[in-house]
Amino acid sequence: MIENIREWIKSFQWLHNDMKFIIIIILSVLAYILLNRVVLRLIRKFIKTTKNQIDDIFFTSKVLRRISYLAPLAVVANYTYLLPDIKIFLDRFITSLAILTFVLTTSAILSAVSDYYQRTEKFKERPIKGYIEVLIIIVYVFGFILILGTLVGESPWAILTGLGALTAILLLVFRDTILSFAASIQISSYDLVKIGDWVEVPKYGADGNVIDISLNVIKIQNWDKTITVIPTYKLIEDSFKNWRGMTLSGGRRIKRSVFIDQSSIKFCTDEMLNKYEKFSLISNYLKQKREEINSYNQQKNYDDRILVNGRRLTNIGTFRAYLTEYLKQREDIKKDLTFMVRQLPPGSEGLPIEVYVFSDTTEWTIYENIQSDLFDHILAVIPQFDLRIFQNPTGSDFRKITLD
Fold first, then answer.
1. Is the full-model pTM beyond 0.90?
2. Counting Cβ atoms within 10 Å, is residue 404 exposed (0-12), middle (13-18) or buried (19+)?
């Protein structure tokens, strides 16, 4: 086609070369319009009929559109001889535009690769985006060197040698990028963070889900829907918490205490035990324990009329046994993870009885409802074991004292 155009141009002997070159430019523009309006539209229709996602990604990333820039450049490059006075400049300029087109096309292809891998389930949560961005930066740097060498007529290697003196400046300019690239390698190698992870970074006030991992920044959407942007290298420079393990386990920890007034703790009398045996959850437990304790005390000849002699049940121990049975019969508590009701060291606020279990869901709202329902019951049942919850005096308490 180019040869046909050349023969057609030669037939216009009466036209000046300047006018011929303008015609060539017009023809190249028409070729570009034809390529975009007709050829690319046909390709688009064909792509829509395919089930493969790769061609859709490459087309939407403007790879084909950028490649189409080469058509008018190729047409014009064959007719620079029409302007001999500026032929060298035109050749260099067109070559530079071709290199720029190649750089833009390569960048679009790499971006398309990144989009494809993010849509692929196997690589969806891997931070490949950072590596792609590094490759794009390298392509742009080498493209810039090639364009500069082409325009000034120097070898790219000579320009690279000259840039050696600017290495320190370049390292300073791209310091964050270099650090972030190294951090991205560590994040990927050790699988520290993936898109969708719930992370906490206290230093930056971040607490939410990771929504994007790029070369330079990691975006975290907090629970209040705000976005926190953290430099990639800063994430591993300081400590952070990743809740992925909790999510994968299928259960979320409930770790909360109630504080018992220590003055309400006492040995159980027969009247108290008879009352507690009516609680269905611990009825069998109490019968078994009473028989075991009576047998032990009789064997040791302890005088059980004195409370401190021998073994005896306490209301706080009975309450812990009840609480354990209560948690076991709840279907929303996981039994295959840590399951414990324990005493913590007593202090000025009373004796802490801690519930340490896991809910059967990690969904925040449901988890909070399970935890609230659990402690609603615990707080309400404590007085049934002749125990009192420790609470600092309030204004109403002082008012009662005054009135008394």
1. no
2. exposed
